Amino acid sequence: MMDILSTNPFFGLFITFFFFLLGTLFHRRWPGNPLFNPLIFSITCIIILLLVTGIPYEQYNEGGRFINLWITPATVALAIKLEKNFVYLKTYYTAILSGIALGVLFHTAILVIVSILFQFNQELVATLFPKSITTAIALGVSDSLGGIVSLTVAIVVFTGVLGTVVGPPIFALLKINDPVAQGVALGSGSHAMGTAKAIELGDVQAAMSGLSIVLTGIVVVILAPLVMGFVGVLF
């Protein structure tokens, strides 16, 4: 019976929605528990289900891949929030642009240093470099640089989940209450998943986070060949 179900393209789609909605219910009941973050919960449950039943990932992905089609439109739709809060961009554009640029440069410097310390090869550097941008852009960057695309996806997801979990506590700890700063931090550090958290915090945070996704992706795309050229010289 399970074999018949797993070969149906809608199987992967169904269990993805089922576990995500279940995680959403648990998250509303226990909002402070990071284990019930809908994304973490659904990913964990799907992995366990596939391991226990022995269903190959390829069979699951026959339906799960349809979700990938929605990534780009969902990212573009974030511009709706930006249009409604465009005044913040006009007022704080210098801080927003410089913050995003410095964030990407710092991320790049850390990656290069870690790559030297642990002797990463160029393939691994290319895989890790787009970890903080949305999946729709990260896949193209990783593939064009010669990275391991499937591993890039996993790292992008992990980065996004981590940002959504630790972001708000860091804001509270450091007393970062400005909605523009919160939105830029979540969008540039943890892409679409961070933006989902930003939407929970407010419209301004959501708008700034959506803007940061786009700008961070552009900066990473521009820097990508330069970084790989530099890494090629080092190695």
Automatic annotation (TrEMBL):
Membrane disposition: Multi-pass membrane protein
Main location as per UniProt: membrane
Coiled-coil intervals: none
Domain of life, per lineage: Bacteria
Cross-referenced InterPro entries: CidB/LrgB (IPR007300)
Cellular component terms (Gene Ontology): membrane
UniProtKB keywords: Membrane, Transmembrane, Transmembrane helix
TM helices/strands, residue ranges: 6-26, 38-57, 63-80, 92-118, 148-171, 211-234
UniProt-annotated location(s): Membrane
PANTHER family to which the protein is assigned, alphabetical: PLASTIDAL GLYCOLATE_GLYCERATE TRANSLOCATOR 1, CHLOROPLASTIC, PUTATIVE SEROTONIN TRANSPORTER
Protein name, UniProt field: TIGR00659 family protein
